[in-house]
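Sequence only, no structure available. Ideas?
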Amino acid sequence: MARRKKIYEGKAKIMYEGPEPGTMVQYFKDDATAFNAEKKAVIEGKGVLNNRLSEFFMTGLTQIGVPNHFIKRLNMREQLIRSVEIIPLEVIVRNFAAGSMCKRLGMSEGTPMPRPIVEFCYKDDALGDPLVSEEHIIAFGWASQQDLDDMISLALRVNDFMSGVMLAVGIKLVDFKIEIGRIWENDFHRLIVADEISPDSCRLWDIETGQKLDKDVFRRDLGNLTDAYTEVARRLGVLPTNVTHAPKPTLIN
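Reply:
I predicted one. Tokens follow.
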């Protein structure tokens, strides 16, 4: 596919104009960031793995009737997706305590939740993506009450699907975050899952050993990130054949 106009570049992906109206091309980079981009590296093969894994998860969601933006994979690093109006919120589902929840609430890492907990963060890197309440979201017009109800429903359906898929290959889905976008049909809109679902956006632990198979490997310097993502892809049966392994990350100053 001929390269088209760049629309947006984020920390892990680049968005290009799509070949047809209402479509975009999503390109997965090898860049890794942590702590609101204070820690950066280029990790060879990461983008290829995330492209294949996100394709796998989005295709699975489509098969069970969860609407999402994925149309098809174009090549090893690019996907054709539907263009959506992204709601400026990260939707987080937590099955076990980890990360910021442990810091906020003084909980021990790995503490099981009494039920899946859905949280919202306002998407603003300059503010550090702060946690916000449903009252904030409605008051500031980021989403309506109906939107919130639909977002929670979508997030919990994704959680049910992802938890089952991961459990089947010996992986615990600790938490994950998704983005949700609006698709307009005349004067009405509906919500669909957007962005990506990959080890960049999930916490994944081996059920037996507790080994981390997600971006915490990079955050905490626990080993080779590509090896961790490759293990997830291997277990799910979607391992690309031409992923190259960098002996260590190339740090960006």
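The two ends are 33 Å apart (CA to CA).
Hope that gets you unstuck.
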